[in-house]
Amino acid sequence: MIEKITEKESQFNIPKIGEIIQGKIIDKGKASVYLDLGALGTGIIYGKEFYEAKDKLKELKSGDTAFAKIIDLENEDGYIELSLNEARKELAWHDLSQKKEDDKSFKVKVSGANKGGLLAEVSGIPAFIPVSQLSADHYPKIDGGDTQKILKELQKFIGKEIEVRVLNFNPREEKLILSEKAKEIKKIEEALKNYKIGDIVEVEVTGIADFGVFVKLIDNKKENPEKENKITEALEGLIHISELSWQLIKSPSEIVKIGQKLKAKIINISDNKVSLSLKALEKDPWENIEEKYKKGDTIKGKVIKFNPFGVFIQVSPASSRHSVSGHNNAGGPQIQGLCHISEFGSYKKMEEILKIGEKYKFQVSLIEPEKHRMSLKFAEK
Fold it and tell me: Domain 103-183, what fold?
């Protein structure tokens, strides 16, 4: 606890260097300010201490009270030397410590941005809000994680106020990390009580990235039948690209679009994060696949994608239908096999022999339904 000496208390306490005291401004010079410290005498802010705090001192007038830190009990002129800046910093750190202890939220104005997050200031102390600590609404959902695009999104917050809590601080290193997301944790924990793994829920797509889709859960609980469905503000989930479809896709934007509402299944709840799946609501196309395809069978498949290991082949025919998850999966779930690059000798030869979208004959060399894996040999030599 910071020890402060008020004017009344000063009559019974002997001051010490480093203590913070309260005084009343009695005079202001061009490069100095004098404070009445009661029984302790007169204090002075001058020299380096004056210039470091001159902007704040301009706001004060004779008769105003201010806290200052003792840096010398008696200078050559008999005054107690004081520092306004050091007192303000120490009191600010104490206040921040109390806010963290009480888990109290407060507002800060964003003063800048870099690729890692937002910059702000709390009572003269520089503060940083990492991108990872932004709320779901403010988190920059940039496809591909382009750092320049992220920075551009973050710069939109400059000059705006956001509500934060103290995440971490170190007065010695003058390090202050704030979190906007922290204020949502209790809301998220409360909202999660209404859900469990296996639940089928309605969601709205809020963001699309190369690794998956951000969604917000829609509150359509039976206890509020008279209310229109509303977005559960604190509860956001992620559908990983691997959970969007049984078929191979290059980008989540092939399956969904921003603002689209659809059904999804909760497959994991961990660390206040919700993971969902669209394909879990689809019939697994690999189920009973051994009844249709057997090792040694020669089949006709369409080339859909090259990669460094080989080429992906669409084996099963497309079946147009509307999926239970609410998205239009053109072509429906499809079985895809991999024909290894060793079948062609090199990547260049593979591209010369095969063309994307064309059909060729392949022989089934391995089927592993539980791993959703089919290996093929090129049969048209």
Answer: OB fold (Dihydrolipoamide Acetyltransferase, E2P) (2.40.50)
